[in-house]
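Problem: given the chain below (341 residues), write out its structure.
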Amino acid sequence: MLLDDDSRLFCDDNRRDPRKIMSNQISFGLAVDELTRGQSVQVPIVLRLENPVKVRGIHARFHGAEETKATYTTTTTSGKGQVTTSTHTAVQHIPIVEQKHLLAGRERAGFFANFTDALATLFGGGRYLVLPSGEHNYIVNVSIPADAPPTHEGNRSRVFYELTCRVDIPRRRDMHAVQSFRVAPLLFERAVDSVRVRYPDDQGRGFWSKLWGPDLRIDLALAKDVICHGQSVDGIFRVETDKPVEVRAIRARLVGHESSKAHGYSDSHRYRGETVEIARPGSIMGSYSQEFSLTPDPVRDMPVTAKGQLFSIDWFVQIELDVPWAKDPEVRIPVVLLPKE
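Solution.
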């Protein structure tokens, strides 16, 4: 992974000519970016300089954490009675692993110490070392715990492992680069079972469904309760009604629900897969049944089933009945969504 330095350092001879700019680089010499639990990995870091650079220190930090977000609003009222509503996002991290390495120079100081040192550097003093132009090679050992959770990327949550290399430069923006790592899902033995739900017996009917929904019963069953991206799941449903019900279409889709908490605030996000039309039955009287097959699309933004300390992502197969002039009945059955094999 190769990142250009955003700050673009100026050589002393080129300060008067902003067109002459140095492009310094930090790169990570990794063959693979996947970490194995309980094992240490050596990560080569290469710092390339076109000209000598004054450096206070070169620091590497390996950091893994669970990150959650929650959006919330606050309302304030001014003395004149004007109401202002503001939206904020709370972000919370739960550490998994942290390893710090000093590759060269001295440890980082605070803001005032760095400010004083920058002034001293301006007048020919300061504490720093001068790195000559060329390549400077370093090695960092990183490791994760044996029970480290897998990497995960959701809308309101993520689990990440990152190695950051930062070059502390007086009177300039620091050079920095970030290398992200993947951690595979934990292997566990789980029996794959068929699953079945009934509507409204298992889910109940809400107020609006009772008021506007048709009076019918839905029986939904799946051959298995575990789905991998790119693989299909087979199911069957049966609709029973004592009175004729007009059903324009019956559709199936995957729906997901992500919940998160951050600093006491709660948030959620819904995922909706592509709709698959199963049938157009028209008028139903008595019993109507139909088999179907549903395949998760691996290209869509659909994170797998996951659970952390402050977040969870759950998935369901949902059957929807399109009933004119009524609230459309829906029945959901929980499933586990796994990565593509």
